Amino acid sequence: MKLLQLSAFREVMLTGTVSGAAAMLGRSQSAVSRILVSLEEELGVKLFARRRGQIMPTEISYQLLDEIERAYNSFDSLASAASRLAKKGGGHLQISVMPALGITFVPLALQRFAKIYPNVRVSVDVRMSREIEERAVAQSIDFGLAELPLKRTGVEVDLFSESAYVSIVRSDHLLARGDAITVEQLRDETVISWPSFNRARQLLDHAFHSINASVKATHETNFSITAFEMVRCGLGIAIIDPYTAHYAAREAVAVLPFEPKLAFQVGIIRPSSKPQTEAARSLISIMAEMRDEIGLK
To answer: Residue 216 and residue 142: Cα distance in Å, rounded?
Structure first.
C-alpha cells in the first residue's frame, strides 16, 4: 500500500468525487480511478460502489478513512515537532513536580522561561513525589522536583533546596502571637494532618512521639494549599511546606516557624541515561534564582 493510494482515496472521500480528488492531487480523473482500483485490488475489498458515473463509498471506506485520518494527524504532529525543533530553542520539555511547587512556584518560573524560550512547549505533570521518582526511572520526563529522600536507583539526584516545614495558624489564635509554634504547644490543639504515607506526617508523628503525645486530627489532606485554606476556615493548625506558605494569600493567617525543625528537602531528579537539554538547564537555573529570591536556598 503506497502513500499515493491513500492520498487519492482520502481526497475522493473528502471531496466526494473523482474529479474533485484529481484537482486536489493535480492528476487526471482516469489516473485517480486507476489508483483507486489498484488500492481495492491490493486490499481485497470493495471501497466504492460505481453507479452511472458516480462512486458511492462502502461502509469499509468510512472505517478506512478514520484510520487514515489518525495517521495524517500523527504526520501533522511530527511536522509541528520538526518545525519547533528547527526554530531556535524549540522542542518539548516534560517535567513532573510535587504539588508544593507545582501550584504557584513552577508557573511563575515558566513565565520567565517563556520569555527566553517562546518556542518550547512545556508539559507540567503535578504528582506525588513517589510517582515522580517512578517517572524518572521510566525515562519519561526531562527532570522532576520531588521531596527527598528517594528510595530507587537509576536516577540522578541533586539537592535543590533544604529548608523546613512551617506552622500555619489563624491570626486570631493565641499561638499566632508568638515567634514560633512548638510541638508541645500543639499537644491539646486540633491539627490538620497528612495521610500516613506522606513524609510530613511521618516527621510530625515523630515530633509528637518525642513528647509522648499523638496528633489530634479531625481533618487530613495531602495538599499543603488545602491545609492552608482549612486553617483559614478555622479547622485547626497545620504544618505545611515553605513554598506553599510563601505564595499563599496570608489574609487572616499567620506563618510561623515550627519547633523542632522538620526538614523539607527538595531534589532535582533526572533520568540517568537521558541527556539534559539546554532548555531544561535554563529552566532549572530560573527555578534556582526564584528559590534564592524567596530565601529557600
So the answer is: 41
| CATH architecture, domain defined by 3-86 | Orthogonal Bundle (1.10)
| DSSP code, position 185 | G
Burial label for 141, CB within 10 Å (0-12, 13-18, 19+), is buried
Half-sphere exposure of 11 (CA within 13 A, CB side): 20
User: How far apart, in Å, do the first and last CA atoms of the chain sit?
Assistant: 60
Q: What's the predicted TM-score (pTM) here? A: 0.69
* 166-261 has the same fold as 3-86: no
CATH architecture, domain 166-261: 3-Layer(aba) Sandwich (3.40)
What cell does 271 get? Answer: 533520568
Distance CA 60, CA 62 (A): 5
- pLDDT in single tens digits along all 297 residues of the chain: 688 888 888 888 888 888 888 988 899 989 988 998 998 889 888 898 888 778 888 888 888 888 888 887 777 666 666 555 555 556 899 999 999 999 999 999 999 999 999 999 999 999 999 899 999 988 899 999 999 998 767 789 999 999 999 999 999 999 999 999 999 999 999 999 999 888 999 999 999 999 999 999 999 999 999 999 999 999 999 999 999 999 998 889 999 999 999 999 999 999 988 888 999 999 999 999 999 999 987
What CATH number does the domain located at 91-160+268-293 have? Answer: 3.40.190.10
